[in-house]
Specification:
235 residues, seven-stranded mixed β-sheet, 6 helices, binds cytidine-5'-triphosphate, binds ligand LQXTBERG, isoprene biosynthesis, EC 2.7.7.60, IspD/TarI, transferase
Length: 235
Amino acid sequence: MSKSVWAVVPAAGNGSRMRADRPKQYLPLLGKPVIRHTLERLISHPKIQGVIVAVAEQDPFWSDLMLPDDWPVYLATGGSQRSDSVFNALFYLRQLTDDDPWVLVHDAARPCLRHTDIDRMLTQLAEDPVGGILGIPMTETVKRVNDNHRILETVNRDNLWRAATPQMFHLKHLLQALQQTIDAQCQVTDEASAMEYAGFQPKMVEGHADNLKITLPQDLELAALYLQRQGDQLA
Ligand SMILES: Nc1ccn([C@@H]2O[C@H](COP(=O)(O)OP(=O)(O)OP(=O)(O)O)[C@@H](O)[C@H]2O)c(=O)n1
Ligand SMILES: C[C@](O)(CO)[C@H](O)COP(=O)(O)O
């Protein structure tokens, strides 16, 4: 596969669950902002041609990153939901290329992404008619609880997976699917949900469990451990 793969990074969230003084993608992690780690992982992959980052309209932190001038990174305006941010980034990408490239949508809040996981997606999905996502099999018992945290039921975990990112689909397919969910006012939390809504069955590709999404305060320390363990071989 030539360098015809693009990445889209939704980075316009406010990280409310982190309860920090800035959006979590800009919090320091081993001496540099979370998003810097994420962008380095993507930019350094030999198959990724460029990255569209969706940032909040009034984002005051992006300019402080001072990214290298030769990085093929383009900015789009984020939206009120993650799916709006992704849609805006894809809409921007469509203006950059006449092709219909594979797009890897990857959360800014997931800095520990391994190149081996990207490689596995590109290998397993290169000829797939739909595309797919990285995920991790559910390895614990799953409970549904009520508002008082009383257990209502144990959910059968056979074939249950945790969805992660990247989520890899063709630009036009994904734009159309997201447009359908917007028109139907159907909220989706990931790209695969939009593709499912449009009637497709994305493929699940197994990834490493250390590709965590930094969401809660304790996740930062864990991400640091993962990055230190991965070292600089980009795993
Ligand atoms: N309107 C939004 C909301 C989220 N995101 C991005 O989507 C990714 C995953 O979303 P999540 O972990 O939910 O981030 P936040 O929405 O910032 O977190 P919270 O729900 O705690 O506010 C993050 O990189 C976030 O920046 C985005 O681009 N646009
Ligand atoms: C897309 C995602 O990373 C898949 O697990 C996740 O849904 C994004 O986080 P959010 O809290 O749902 O916005």
